[in-house]
Design brief:
The chain is an alpha+beta fold and 135 residues long. It has a single domain, classed as Aminopeptidase (3-Layer(aba) Sandwich). Helix content is 23%, strand content 34%. The chain contains three helices and six strands, in the order αβββαβαββ. 16% of the residues are buried.
């Protein structure tokens, strides 16, 4: 289902538990592949749902399961990206991901970066220090 990486790397990702699958009977209908951005932030590299299974909540369920696993492992935030000409950014925004920047490769649409923080601070108090320059 994922043709963007070779089978050897796919097998390695499966062994490292960096792929979540959604199956219907024995058929894979969706997958979420991730890695660590900067070696410390879970990053969705690919979310793929079979065309005929889209708009059924399968992608949302995979992401929610993945987010729960990342929280349980102690991560405070997760990231992903989407090209600016893809519909993925609207999907991630609905799931409370915030656009935090972009970068461009030659002859490609800009790649938008998204971040979701797992805020346990319910009072709305800033928990990270803010750097200010002295007057």
């Amino acid at each position: 289902m994922d043709d963007s990486i070779d089978s050897e790397l796919m097998e390695e990702k499966i062994q490292q538990q960096e792929i979540l699958l959604a199956k219907e009977e024995k058929e894979i209908i969706a997958l979420l592949r991730f890695s660590l951005f900067w070696d410390n932030t879970p990053f969705i590299n690919l979310l793929l749902v079979k065309e005929e299974k889209r708009k059924e909540g399968i992608g949302t369920n995979l992401i929610q399961k993945w987010e729960s696993e990342m929280k349980e492992k102690g991560f405070e935030r997760v990231m992903t990206s989407s090209q600016s000409d893809e519909t993925g950014q609207e999907f991630f925004k609905k799931l409370k991901y915030k656009e935090i920047g972009s970068f461009e490769f030659p002859e490609q649409e800009p790649e938008l970066l998204f971040l979701k923080e797992f805020n346990s601070n319910k009072a709305g108090i800033e928990t990270r220090p803010t750097l200010r320059s002295s007057p």
